[in-house]
Design brief:
The complex is a heterodimer of chains A (about 120) and B (about 110). By secondary structure, chain A is mainly β. Chain A is built from no helices and 11 strands. Chain A has strands at about 5, 10, 20-25, 35-40, 45-50, 60, 70-75, 80-85, 90-100, 110, 115-120. Chain B is globular, with a radius of gyration of 13 Å. The termini of chain B are far apart. In chain B, strands 1, 3, 4, 7, 8 and 9 form a 6-stranded mixed β-sheet that branches. In chain B, strands 2-6-5 form a 3-stranded antiparallel β-sheet, with no helix packed on it. Chain B has no helices and 9 strands. Classes of the chains: A mainly beta (about 120), B mainly beta (about 110). The interface of A and B includes residues 45, 61, 95, 105 and 109 of A.
Chain lengths: ~120, ~110
């Protein structure tokens, strides 16, 4: 398992963009796929996308396809999630999560989440 | 995509068993994973692949999956088990994970 440390809470105005970071606290997670999942108040988690260990491949959920960008800085071991054209419905806690190195279908490590509030 | 349905809340007295369900169309044909989520903390997997307990998870946590319902059972519930729990499967059609809406477990 990997301990994931995320950046702090953000407050953004509608139409703006937000960029959230995720980094392993001790050991690097260069071999892990990293997913991003968000959870709006009172709702279940929602998958947003995945980035490969090398950062050269990404897949996004269809509903975020044109607004989300996942990137990876392999030199610092940091993964980023950027969401653009923010609206009030994007207010949520955003999590990064990894799957085990030998598995792909469940998450063995999660960050504590980053609260993004979109408000005018 | 595949839809998972959980009851919003479950209440149980300390020492009793709690059953949290996750419904889905023929979910028994899929592998179900369960996570515990406490306020301000990272979610933690408590059951993977229907009934596998990761190291460090008490034996009181178990799972089952058949037909249209998967169930997380917490036996001899403790106050510290009070948390949110959500289920997750991998949707082969969309090729991404899908989550249930989550269940708030209250220990009375």
């Amino acid at each position: 398992q990997v301990q994931l440390v995320q950046s702090g809470a953000e407050v953004k105005k509608p139409g703006a963009s937000v960029k959230v970071s995720c980094k392993a606290s001790v050991n690097s997670f260069t071999g892990n796929f990293v997913h991003w999942v968000r959870q709006a108040p009172g709702q279940g988690p929602e998958w947003m996308g995945i980035i490969s260990p090398g950062g050269d491949s990404t897949t996004y959920a269809q509903r975020f396809q044109d607004r989300v960008t996942l990137t990876r800085d392999t030199s610092t071991g940091t993964v980023y999630m950027e969401l653009s054209s923010l609206r009030s419905e994007d207010t949520a806690v955003y999590y990064c999560a990894t799957t085990p190195l030998d598995d792909f279908y469940y998450f063995d490590s999660w960050g504590r989440g980053t609260l993004v509030t979109v408000s005018s | 995509s595949f839809v998972l349905t959980q009851p919003p809340s479950v209440s149980v007295a300390p020492g009793r068993a709690a059953n949290i369900t996750c419904g889905g169309n023929n979910i028994g044909s899929k592998s179900v994973h369960w996570y515990q989520q406490k306020p301000g903390q990272a979610p933690v997997v408590v059951i993977s692949y229907d009934n596998d307990r990761p190291s460090g998870i008490p034996e009181r946590f178990s799972g089952s999956n058949s037909g249209n319902t998967a169930t997380l059972t917490i036996s001899r519930v403790e106050v510290g088990d009070e948390a949110g729990y959500f289920c997750q499967v991998w949707d082969d059609r969309s090729d991404h994970p899908v989550f249930g809406g989550g269940t708030k477990l209250t220990v009375l």
